Amino acid sequence: MANAQNSQNKKLASALNFVSFLLLNLTEKEREEIKQILLLDAKIFVDALDNKELADKISAIAKQFAYPLDFSVGTLEAQKKPQASAFILYSRFQLQPKAGVPKTLISWEVIKPDSKRVLLNKRLFGYTQFGKFYPGLMQRYSAVKLGKGCISVSSQFAPAVIAVFKQMKIPFETKEVFEVA
Length: 181
What we know:
This protein is α+β, with helices and mostly antiparallel strands. Helices cover 37% and strands 29% of the residues.
């Protein structure tokens, strides 16, 4: 059992070594054509777009590698026999959100003097005077208070909120995020 595990670890280490060597010897454009590289049993499979030139270049790079390898290049969908298990040695990460809204987080520290802090709070959160409520930017742009000194506003309305901070000369920080529901 220990010998089988040791042998599997050596195969995995050698395969990872090859993947690193391969990726270093490919151009950025060629790397973009590779979806993933898998270790299927003892064979390395490069899941790439159907490109003969790329397959030839990978073969040439494999011949330069220090250890002999069993590998193939193709598309995973074209594989005849389904694999029960595989190690993913390389996979291109692509963030493809299905739905969401770009948001801007705006944060600020304690504001002194108190009159400046109160004026900012009135402009952001609104205020009530003589029984009538006057809405602030938070209500107007459906912004959300995340905590003390931090709000989240839709990125399209962020310039209007940021303008208030700049007008009042209040130091602030912004972060662009993507909110996924």
